Amino acid sequence: MLVYLHGFNSSAQSTKARLMGDYLARSGMSHRYACPSLPHRPAEAIAMAETAMAGRPGSEVCFLGSSLGGFYATHLAEKHNARAVLINPAIDPHIGLRAYLGPQSNLYTGEKYQLTETHLQEWEALRVARVTPENFLLLVETGDEVLDYRQALNFYAGARQVVIEGGDHSLQSFPRHIAAMLEFAGIHGT
């Protein structure tokens, strides 16, 4: 099972989520993909992601997380001893998103809400001190305009890492890596 976790103010309708879903559908593997639209509250997002695991043990799940979704995927992979593919992941959203406190609007759904200190506290509580490197595949582009890719390289030291020159926070090269992501996830057809 591959569980896609989208980023901050994104949704299950994001480009990467749709590309992966379409690829798996064409391959007859839609039943091995879950992509919940995560709530803005961190604790609720984690609960929804765990529901998407459909009662499977961590050994049968791989999380695919982009940006803030990569942060969530890291937490969940460590908690459930699962694998995770991370795309330009957030390392410390409780620090990085502090500048965005106040009114927010989801880019896809239009949902309006307030980003508060409670969000920051919940993210800080979810942060893991260190990761199990063999459980992670990290994909970053050096042109990420939102997060410093070098922080991810340091935090996930020892993990399999793919560093692409240029690009941006969206991981422009995403389609080129789908097969490698699915291989890491252990998804090889029906």
Compact summary:
The chain is built from seven helices and eight strands, in the order βαβαβαβαββαβαβα.
CATH topology: Rossmann fold
The largest sheet, given as strand count, sense and whether it forms a barrel, is:
6 strands, parallel
**Global structural class:** alpha/beta
Question: How much is the radius of gyration in Å?
Answer: 15 Å
| Shape, principal axes of CA atoms | globular
**How many helices in DSSP terms?**
7
Q: What is the H/E string?
A: EHEHEHEHEEHEHEH
Low-confidence stretches: none
In CATH, the homologous superfamily goes by the name Alpha/Beta hydrolase fold, catalytic domain
Which strand-content bin applies to the residues?
15-25%
Strand arrangement in the largest pleated sheet: 2-1-3-4-7-8
Name the CATH class.
Alpha Beta
Number of domains: 1
Gross CATH architecture = 3-Layer(aba) Sandwich
- Work out the helicity level: 25-40%
State the total count of DSSP E strands.
8
